[in-house]
Every structure is written in C-alpha cells, then in structure tokens.
C-alpha cells in the first residue's frame, strides 16, 4: 500500500505539489495524468525520496518514509522507472541486470523473488539483447530494461514516470500490458502519464494533477463515463475512451506478460 497524506513539495522553497493526498492499494494501477509541468515527476521523485517533502506524510506498507534518503526508501520497497529510462549507454543489458539484482532484499511476504532468470523469461527481447549496450537498444528495449532494473530491486511499489513517452504505439501497448500484468501479481503501481489514453487503458483509477494539485481521482470506469470533464481538465479536445479491456487474450511470443494470479474478483 502506498499512501500520501497532504504532501507538499518543491524546489528551493518554491512549492510545486500542494497538499496531495492519494492512496494506492496492492494489485492496482493508479494513473496520474497532467499537462507539462503539472508536477508529475515531482510527485514520483518525492515518493522515491529524490525530492524532500516540505510537509505531509508518505507511507509504504504503513511505514512512514517521507524525508528518508532515496536508498532507504528503495529498501523499503519502492522501485522507480524514471522518465527518459536513464539506462547507461556503455553498459550491456547483462551488466545492467547484474548490477540491479538484489535477491537478498525482502520481497513482499509470499511473493516470488525477481531474479535475472525470471526477468529474462518475462522479457525475451532483453534475453536476445544481453550483449548489447544501452545505446544500441531501441526506445522500447530501453524501457523494458528500465522496468527490469526496477523489478530486480524487489519493489512492493513501482513508480513509472511516463513509460510510453516516445514509444511507437505497438511498443507502448506492450509496456502497458507489462504494467497491467505486474499489478496483477500484487504490485502497487503508480503510473504517471501525460497521455490520458495510455493511462486509461491500464489503470484501475485515474487522477489528474493540475498545477500541483490533485483535482480528480476516480475509478477508471467512472472516468471513461465522463470524458468531457477529463478533456476540460487536461485542455484536450476529446478524450479517446477505448473499450474496457477484456480478459487477457493471446499474446505474441515476445510480448511481456506476467503470469497472472487468480482473479481479484
Ligand atoms: N530540479 C528542479 N529544480 C527546480 N524546479 C524544478 C525542478 N524540477 C522540476 N521543476 C519545476 O517543477 C515544476 C513541475 O515539474 P515536473 O517535472 O514535476 O512536471 P511534469 O508534470 O513531470 O512535466 P512533464 O510532463 O513536462 O515531464 C515545473 O515548473 C518545473 O520547472
């Protein structure tokens, strides 16, 4: 469980996030959408400890973490997939994975540990690129690698900062399927997106950040039924509301798909 209560944060005394209250339950994808500069990255950086909140409470699994160092927050079970992927251009895929692997970290009780073997099973595209350097990967492969790296830290809460940015639609779809499958294994997922349609296809709830304030937070089904409100908040002409996703269909061999546990009901 990830919980934020009246969190305010910013830079050099200026406030970017104002009184943000948000709760994400395990197994759910909470999307936060907003325009450029709304404060989305500041939100994930504040949860991850890269920005120190001025006020408010942040809890991971009931444990307060606000103000802790980023490495301690990571150890509490927070994995960050940063905007722009931030893979190392000179390191190979294999080197990235070996450096990130932390199987000794306590995972969620009862949850299967993320190992390099399990990651490669999930992401066969990475398995085929093990000797490639970061700068030799496509944008989609870099994104998979960034997610793999975060998973190897054994997170309970996964923060994804615009994972679809710059990806072709089919690759963005694969990332979306991967994120949905990860949540289905019990991970708590906070997905920051600028593009509402990327978020709405995978999220259980959709929140809108406007000038650093959370002005909307509803189940996705309600958001789909209310496209005009979302369009107005995001200053876009229309909201594409694709049909609600059905049960998992067939996936191509190299499409990442996390084995799903029994339905949450
Ligand atoms: N390191 C920093 N120092 C000072 N100001 C910053 C810093 N990082 C971000 N800001 C400011 O905070 C505000 C919110 O930025 P943030 O990156 O959180 O927005 P965002 O919603 O993620 O935007 P985008 O969709 O363009 O990535 C902006 O006004 C930005 O200029």
Keywords:
265 residues, alpha/beta, Rossmann fold, 6-stranded mixed β-sheet, globular, disordered C terminus, binds adenosine-5'-triphosphate, nucleotide-binding, ATP binding, ATP-binding, Branched-chain amino acid transport system ATP-binding protein, amino-acid transport
**Could you give the distance between the termini?**
19 Å
Q: Quickly give the structural class.
A: alpha/beta
Beta-strand percentage?
Answer: 15-25%
Low-confidence stretches: 243-257, 260-265
Provide the CATH architecture of the domain at 2-86 and 156-234.
Answer: 3-Layer(aba) Sandwich
The radius of gyration over CA amounts to 18 Å
Number of strands: 10
Write out the strand line-up for the largest beta sheet, numbering strands in chain order: 6-7-8-3-9-10
Classified by CATH, the class of the domain at 2-86 and 156-234 is Alpha Beta
Total helix count? 10
What would you call the shape? globular
What is the averaged pLDDT score?
83
Helical fraction: 25-40%
Which fold name is given in CATH as the topology of the domain at 2-86 and 156-234?
Rossmann fold
Q: Element order, helices and strands?
A: EEEHEEHEHHHHEHEHEEHH
Largest sheet: 6 strands, mixed
What molecules are bound to this protein?
A: adenosine-5'-triphosphate
CATH 4th-level superfamily of the domain at 2-86 and 156-234: P-loop containing nucleotide triphosphate hydrolases
InterPro entries: AAA+_ATPase, ABC_transporter-like_ATP-bd, ABC_transporter-like_CS, BCAA_Transport_ATP-bd_LivF, P-loop_NTPase
Keywords: Amino-acid transport, ATP-binding, Nucleotide-binding, Transport
Organism: Micromonospora krabiensis
Family: Belongs to the ABC transporter superfamily.
